[in-house]
Amino acid sequence: NLTFTVSSLRDLIVGDVQKPLLILLGAVALVLLVACANVANLLLARASARHGELAVRVAMGAGRGRLLRQLLTESVVLAVVGGAAGLLIAYWATGALVAARPADIPRLDQVGLNSTVILFTLAISLLTGIAFGLLPALQATSGRLIGALREGGRGGGQGKGAHRVRSILVVAEMALSVILLMGAGLLIRSFVEMTRVTPGFVAEQALAFRVNLQGDEYKGAAQIQNRVLQFEERLRALPGVTSVAATTVLPLSGQGSVLDFLVVGAAPPPPDVNQEIAVASITPQYFAAIGAPLRSGRTFTDQDRAGAQPVVVVNEAAVRRWFPDGNPIGEQVQTGGTKFEVVGVVGDVRQRHPGE
Fold this sequence. Notes:
- This protein is of the alpha+beta class and 356 residues long.
- 52% of the residues lie in helices and 9% in strands.
- It is built from 9 helices and 6 strands; from the N terminus they run H-H-H-H-H-H-H-E-E-H-E-E-H-E-E.
- It has helices at 9-49, 51-59, 64-100, 115-140, 144-150, 160-196, 221-236, 286-290, 316-322, and strands at 257-263, 276-279, 294-297, 311-315, 332-335, 338-346.
- Helix 1 (9-49) runs parallel beside helix 4, helix 1 (9-49) runs antiparallel to helix 6 and helix 2 (51-59) crosses helix 5 (144-150).
- The longest helix is centred in the N-terminal third of the chain and has 41 residues, at 9-49.
- The mean pLDDT is 84.
């Protein structure tokens, strides 16, 4: 009756950063489209000044295909030069980013420009150069060239079609800019709201590390508890250390074990409410070590050990959900097949992501 899930190693390593990077890639794509629309508008304006030159080329026998190839070549060269400049900036910025060593970015030592990035940039440069240079080229080589030549090379002016195209490009550019600004504004607001979330613990001047106790020496709970006590005694003796504690689940690292839960003597909850609760095992100074406030009752003491009355401390979220009268002190609860007495209430500590 066991079930399991399977995930790829790649998702396990980069899963937390993949979505933010994809969002950033989308924002970069919008910036690229805005820049391309801007350049297309500039090419249309430039084509207006070059009507006389192109009309002379037509009069000397150049066909429209020849002119299109010339203008597309110019736009592609412009795009490739821009892509090369972008690669140089990316090379410098990537080096600065890796040197800064931001936290929580997996495989940071492998971040850098490689052949895939260069080929991708070249392909995007060629694609944008052709896509956004074709329309100005078609407008510049329209049938008005002969008219421009007959008028003495006065530029021939731009027809309603060219003005309409430029207006469409301006509208598209404005729409993309609004989308980009709205997305950036929402991301900034989300970031600000995340910084305002109270984690329920104090991270300043605190250090946490994980220890796995495995092997024949740690088969029993008593052996593990004795080793943890030795850790605490030695760490507490270090200069500058004010409090030491251990927990099975660190804040912001997950909800830990989830067990069945019920309040002894209370009415059963509605059918749509799961009768379960997240549980962590801690040593007595844990709440003092992380700076979690005690709301009522007491925390654990050295007397709360094997053989004594089983007791638990609950957080405010548990009080709101399971104790409608708001006073759980002295109540009996049952979880994992064992009855406990509630002796204290502490403030909520964020166990998962601040956005949850």
